[in-house]
Structure formats: C-alpha cells, structure tokens
C-alpha cells in the first residue's frame, strides 16, 4: 500500500491557551477537495486521515460530524482507502490533557461512535505515536499538560495506550474485520562513550513501552519497576496483559525520520545522531520483538537549498523498505508524510511562528514538489512488480465501495466469530491473573 497523509496534529501550547491545528495552518479546511484530487494525480489509493478531534468530539456523547461527513463521504465516493487517525497529539479543551484519567473511556466512546457512523471504514490508527505524544507532553514539557517528570510521562502513556486499546475493542464490535495500523515512532539511542552505555540501555528499553503495553507483552524487570515506581498500579498493568489478542488485528506502523536516532551522553542528555542504523535495522529490531506485519507509516525530509534533499531521502527510505522486505519481514506499505507542506514542525510545534516546513509532496499552494514527482514515478515503477514478487502477507483490505459485497460480508462474519472467541480467551486470562507479579513478568 503506497500512502500519504493529511497532517492533523492538534496539540496545545502556552498552558493550553494556544491550539496548533495543522489542518487549519496547512489550508486543508479550505482546500480539502483539491487535496483529495491530488491523490488521483499521484495514483495514491491509501490516505492517512482523520477529522479534527477537538472540533468533532464536543462533549460526552456529543459530536459535530459536519466536516467529517463532507470529507469522508467524498473519500468514499472516490473509493480511497483511509487509515483513520482519530487522535493526533491533542484532545478537546473540555477533556484537558493526557493526565485526565477519564480520557481512555471518553475516547473509546468516540471511536465507537465514529465506527458506527462510517461503517465502511476498515483501517484505523486510533491514537498516533503514543510514545512521542507522552514524551513531548509529559516528559519534555512541550505540549498539552507541559509537564516534565517520570510520573507525568507514565500517567500520560498509560492513559494513551489504554485509550488506544479500548478504542480497538469498541471499533471491532462495529467492524469485526477492522485492521489497526499502529503508527509509532521507531527510535534508537547510541551511547557516545562507555559511561553513556547504561543511560542508553534504559532509553532503548523505554522506547518499547507503548507498544509493549498495546500488544500485551510483558515488560522487562527494569521497566516494570519504572512503571510501578511512577504511578502504574498492578491492576492497570494486568489490564494490558489481558488484551493481547488484539494484536491479531494489528499492523505495526514504524515511523522513521532523520531525527529518530540519538547520541546519548553520560549524563543522559541526548543530541541528534542522524540516520546511523537507518529504517532497515531499527525496524528489524521492532519486528523481532513483536513479530507483526509492518508498514512504514511516516517519513519526510525538508527540501533544502539544493532542491533534491527530499528526493534523495525518499530514495533512501524506499531502499530500506526493500531491504526489510527482502530479509523476510512482512512489510505491507510505505508512506510519505504528508501530502502538503506543514507549518512550524521545524520547532516541533512548540512555538506558533507560522513558518512553512517544506516536507510535502506539494507546497501549500498545491504545486507539486520534486519529491512529489519522484514519488509518483516510484509508485508507477513498483506498483505492478511488488505483488508478483511479494514475500509478504496478503492484507485483507476492502475498498470503501466494496463494503456490501458478499465476499466482504462473509469475511466480516468470520472475523466476528473469531473476535468472540478471542474475547472469551481474554476473559479467562483476566480471571486467572496472578495477585502479584510472576517471575516471568519481572525476569
């Protein structure tokens, strides 16, 4: 699946007083019809997309679907396959931020209401980059709650992942053949010197926390203590272990940028390392841990003074995708993110400068960039070759207009029966949970 996305980040800064809405900054609210037409120009059939959560989810059990109805009905008409991104770095003002313990259940009700309104949608990213969201909001102090402590980080992380898990459960009640493309940042921390080995090891363990919890994988002993020491309860931890069957409905989305690798100093501080290992090596580390199908769900690079920087980065990322695939990892898609340029991502949305970040396939006047032309050519070159040579799984994705076709209905019914059995097994697991951590949990 070749894909792009409409950038829909909505974090707040200035202690919640300023909302950074990328759909507004990038002109999507005004130019959404044009943006969708550009997909056809590129021959792209998959789009990471989601309505703005802060204006759609207006209160408990209250929704304003007006913009979502316009845009999603058009995507359905165009027969574009959306990967619906329900929460991207921010929540509505009335929820507050990710420290709110009510967020998981509130978000799950929103996800279920969305699935009921748009039953033809099959692919979802309930919550985008949970690790990054918790880190930037509650460890670095940049967004939303703007806190900087381990306890705030764990609080945000457990709420984000619980919300994601509950949303998957609720969506599957409505669409039992739903597939979750969990877009998450793939990170690596390099020790700068021998004294930095220990802090780098801790960071390299911490990078897996969101996906460990999301997929019901037991964490190692050091991370278990980190979770417990910073506010996660035993019952909260076991909640995630009893939802492990959800992973059967998941594709692991790995996001990779030139900023995803870090040099670690002895004092634990970090600087950018550039692409030392690259997407290939780091993705194989994540795959070896979770053994799930993979999709490259985000990458980009700013077009610089030479005009070919993004083009060369696209080539490098695609070479890495082919390398991952050729080593036997079931990789099912690639994404250049996003369709258009973004705004203020040069400072990670920490400031409202209204400065264009030239990373799109198109600029904000909707003129194609060199990387857009190269991506179009890449799709044309490879779209017919990969299926014939694929060593990957076949992903059972149906097009929007096939929702009511008999084979799709039969597949949904099979998945409904399978999900009922999974739920029974999860219930038995929950009833058999130990009252205290087992040796395996902390080994």
From TrEMBL:
GO molecular function: hydrolase activity, hydrolyzing O-glycosyl compounds
Keyword Translocase: no
Gene Ontology biological process terms in this record: carbohydrate metabolic process
Membrane-traversing stretches: none
Tagged with keyword Hydrolase: yes
Residue ranges with Basic and acidic residues bias: 420-434
InterPro entries registered for this protein in UniProt: GH, Glyco_hydro_1, Glycosyl_Hydrolase_39
Domain of life: Bacteria
Region entry Disordered, spans: 403-443
Biased composition (Basic residues): 409-419
Keyword list, A-Z: Hydrolase
Record PANTHER family: ALPHA-L-IDURONIDASE, BETA-XYLOSIDASE-LIKE PROTEIN-RELATED
Protein name per the record: Glycoside hydrolase family 1
